[in-house]
């Protein structure tokens, strides 16, 4: 079968984990995936969790071979704003040299490349050079809340020498990229309640606190005038960048000019005293992801809103602990909040940051595989995004993770018109095969 046909089928499932309306579609996607892995010649099954199933698949294992756990996710981010898509998010199309659909890069295209690599090797050679365990979850985009427990419960069956993940970026087309660090994250919803209902702003305005005003004041206190997060203690555990990292990053083909173009922002902005790459890869941040209060419809409506809500997330770096920072942030917000409104915080998902030495024997094997696949020297980066399970692999299974991503800077992950370069899809299939061969020879 044409690899693209498979990718199209995978992409047609609207497997949006964040939105409960799509629950059946996420389940259906897991079922298809399980079936597809069986078809590839693997023993596949679904592990039930209180959330979405984890799809697990393995080849015939032999005790004298290395075991590689290949991790990915079949869930995707919500698609809104739908109006900004040039074609429908779950009706994949090829335009030019790219395939467009939600999940094309993040992460269906990348994980399917691994599956097809394994299938092809099994078909051509009858066997793989290593034991493989695929672990493909349906809750990565909502913080991998149940996968940690699955790893703990199945520690024996899921034990591996090394984890391989393609869910990160490449610095530019054709440049093989080895990611050795990720930021952590925790998400928080801040809810303020003012008057019992929306009030007439003429009759009551001026006599009661407006929760939208209070929220704005609180949010504006999150950063100081130098772009630093103002939460006391926030930076206490931040591990400074090392010299070798600065040296390697200086060689990357990532310029501020490119960053400006990719973001479409008017200018770059962030914490004073740090370069763009340092700001996103090695410094923690506080972001407002969503804001809601009062009337959002056409025209004006003169009210004092009764509620105001902000969705916040904090990106963390080694060695910050999400739980500790969450407490510091919540205490800070409580102190900022006046008596005139009531405040609630809703804790949402979190994940630890990840950092691994790139020069371990497995790391070097992965770099050889990248070089064989792309015929270019490897770029070494950290990423600003988060894959919450990577540190959990280390904590629960004791296993390091190799991050060999195929996402390009303009892949529009999480945005309208998400896309995946077809060339990278095929490169991913070869990368899987080169990787398994190189890992087999690690001593
Ligand atoms: N593939 C991304 C993580 C990523 C993005 C790594 C860019 C490197 C560069 C992953 O699917 C993702 O989006 N993760 C979420 C996790 C969160 C929802 C807990 C993220 O980073 O926002
Ligand atoms: Mn994502």
List the helices and strands and how they pair.
Layout lengths: L2 H10 L10 H17 L3 E5 L6 E5 L8 E7 L19 E3 L2 E3 L3 H22 L5 E7 L9 H7 L1 H4 L3 E4 L11 E6 L1 E10 L5 E2 L10 H10 L22 H8 L5 H8 L12 H6 L3 E9 L9 E2 L2 E10 L5 H15 L5 E10 L2 E2 L5 H14 L4 E4 L6 H9 L3 E3 L15 E3 H19 L3
Parallel strand pairs: 3-6, 3-7, 7-17, 8-16
Antiparallel strand pairs: 1-2, 2-6, 4-5, 5-18, 8-15, 9-13, 9-14, 10-12, 11-13
Helix pairs in contact: 1-3, 3-13, 4-12, 11-13
Bound molecules: ligand BES and manganese (II) ion.
List the bound ligands. Answer: ligand BES, manganese (II) ion
> What's the CATH topology name of the largest domain?
Aminopeptidase
Strand content: 15-25%
Total discrete domains: 2
Which CATH class of the largest domain is shown? Alpha Beta
Please report the distance between the alpha carbons of the first and last residues.
36 Å
Main sheet makeup: 6 strands, mixed
CATH superfamily of the largest domain: Zn peptidases
Global Rg: 23 Å
Work out the number of β strands. 18
Widest β-sheet, arrangement of strands: 1-2-6-3-7-17
- Unreliable spans are none
Average predicted confidence as pLDDT? 97
CATH architecture of the largest domain: 3-Layer(aba) Sandwich
Helical content stands at 25-40%
Shape type:
globular
């Amino acid at each position: 079968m044409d690899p693209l046909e498979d990718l199209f089928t995978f992409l047609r499932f609207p497997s949006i984990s964040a939105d409960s309306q799509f629950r059946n579609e996420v389940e259906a996607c897991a079922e298809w995936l399980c079936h597809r892995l069986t078809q590839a010649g693997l023993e596949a099954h679904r592990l039930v969790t209180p959330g979405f199933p984890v799809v697990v698949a393995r080849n015939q294992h032999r005790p004298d071979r290395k075991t590689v756990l290949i991790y990915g996710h079949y869930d995707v981010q919500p698609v809104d704003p739908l109006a900004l898509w040039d074609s429908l998010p779950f009706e994949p199309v090829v335009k030019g040299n790219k395939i467009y659909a939600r999940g094309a890069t993040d992460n269906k295209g990348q994980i399917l490349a691994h599956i097809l690599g394994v299938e092809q090797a099994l078909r051509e050679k009858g066997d793989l050079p290593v034991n493989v365990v695929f672990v493909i979850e349906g809750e990565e985009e909502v913080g991998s809340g149940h996968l940690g427990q699955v790893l703990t419960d199945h520690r024996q069956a899921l034990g591996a020498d090394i984890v391989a993940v393609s869910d990160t970026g490449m610095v530019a087309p054709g440049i093989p990229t080895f990611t050795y660090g990720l930021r952590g994250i925790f998400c928080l919803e801040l809810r303020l309640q003012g008057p019992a209902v929306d009030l007439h702003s003429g009759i009551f305005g001026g006599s009661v606190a407006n929760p939208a005003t209070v929220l704005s004041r609180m949010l504006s206190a999150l950063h100081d005038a130098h772009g630093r997060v103002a939460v006391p203690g926030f930076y206490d555990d931040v591990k400074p960048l090392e010299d070798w990292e600065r040296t390697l990053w200086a060689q990357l083909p990532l310029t501020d000019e490119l960053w400006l173009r990719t973001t479409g922002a008017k200018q770059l902005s962030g914490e004073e005293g740090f370069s763009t790459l340092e700001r996103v890869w090695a410094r923690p941040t506080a972001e407002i992801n969503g804001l809601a209060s009062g009337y959002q419809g056409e025209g004006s409506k003169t009210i004092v809103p009764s509620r105001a809500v902000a969705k916040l997330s904090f990106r963390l770096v080694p060695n910050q602990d999400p739980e500790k920072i969450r407490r510091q942030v919540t205490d800070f917000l409580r102190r900022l909040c006046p008596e005139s409104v009531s405040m609630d915080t809703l804790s949402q998902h979190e994940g630890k940051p990840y950092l691994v030495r790139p020069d371990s024997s497995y790391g070097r094997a992965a770099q050889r595989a990248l070089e064989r696949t792309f015929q270019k020297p490897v770029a070494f980066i950290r990423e600003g995004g988060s894959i919450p399970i990577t540190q959990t692999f280390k904590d629960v299974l004791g296993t390091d993770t190799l991050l060999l991503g195929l996402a390009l800077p303009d892949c529009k992950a999480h945005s309208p018109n998400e896309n995946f370069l077809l060339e990278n899809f095929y490169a991913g299939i070869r990368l899987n095969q080169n990787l398994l061969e190189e890992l087999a020879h690690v001593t």
